[in-house]
Amino acid sequence: MTAAKPTTRLPYDDASTVQEMSADCRALGENPRFRKAAKAAVEPAPSIHFEDYPREIAKRDIQISDAAARIANALQLHLD
């Protein structure tokens, strides 16, 4: 096993000036997508209580066309 070679490169970007980093933060704050994410981050979590959700939700009816029924029958699929 060989020893790791030392480098002069930093593991993080420290080349930016304070003004550049400040401008980056302002640009980020003006982005509507990030504003929406920041707003969502501080909203309360949705409820996990059973009482807060409807008990019965009707299922939608699925219409099977004649062509789909013929294909299913040809493949021996049972759509009952």
So how many helices?
3
Q: H/E order of the elements?
A: HHH
How many beta strands in the DSSP annotation? 0
Our Rg estimate from Cα atoms comes to 29 Å
General description of the model:
- By secondary structure, this protein is mostly helical.
- The chain has a domain at 18-52.
- It contains 3 helices and no strands.
- The chain is elongated and about 70 Å long.
- It starts with 17 loop residues before the first helix and ends in a 6-residue tail after the last helix.
- The mean pLDDT is 80.
Topology:
Blueprint: H1 18-30, H2 32-42, H3 66-74
Briefly, what is this?
With 80 residues, the chain is mostly helical. The chain is elongated and about 70 Å long.
Identify the notable features of this structure and list them briefly.
single chain, 80 residues, mainly alpha, 3 helices, 41% helix, 0% strand
